[in-house]
Design a protein that fits this description.
Number of strands: 2
Strand order of the largest sheet: 1-2
Shape: globular
Structural class: mainly alpha
Helix content: over 70%
Oligomer: single chain
Strand content: 5-15%
Distance between the termini: 12 Å
Largest sheet: 2 strands, antiparallel
């Protein structure tokens, strides 16, 4: 079921969301200082491509993560969160789209504060 959900997700907007993450990742990776932020963007792009069967866990609550999250929020996080939020609203139009809207809301929340988070396979 996870494979089917990811396949349908890809066509319902996951591809465009992932391209947006990649775009921000490339922009941040232009400078040496932005490389950690770019690396996290590429990790989140992989999640945006296939969010089903994965969950986000907090691994680091240090002050450096807090600083990077604030910097990210100002320079890219709001735009990505807004894209995922709009996608979630559009997906709730039909009953079939509700599980996809839930994934989009998960990604919108993650778009605001992605640092200190890691993606792991969900064990059922």
């Amino acid at each position: 079921m996870t494979c089917l959900g990811n396949f349908i997700w890809w066509f319902l907007g996951g591809f465009f969301g992932a391209i947006t993450w990649w775009f921000f990742g490339i922009l941040w990776s232009i400078t040496i200082i932005g490389l950690p932020i770019g690396k996290q963007c590429f990790k989140m792009a992989r999640l945006q491509f296939a969010p089903f069967g994965k969950e986000v866990v907090t691994v680091d609550d240090s002050k450096s993560s807090f600083f990077l999250n604030i910097l990210w929020l100002i320079f890219g996080g709001l735009e990505l969160a807004l894209v995922n939020l709009i996608s979630a609203v559009l997906l709730t139009i039909s009953i079939i789209g509700i599980p996809f809207a839930i994934q989009s809301l998960k990604l919108a929340k993650l778009s605001l504060m992605p640092f200190g988070k890691d993606i792991v396979a969900k064990i059922d």
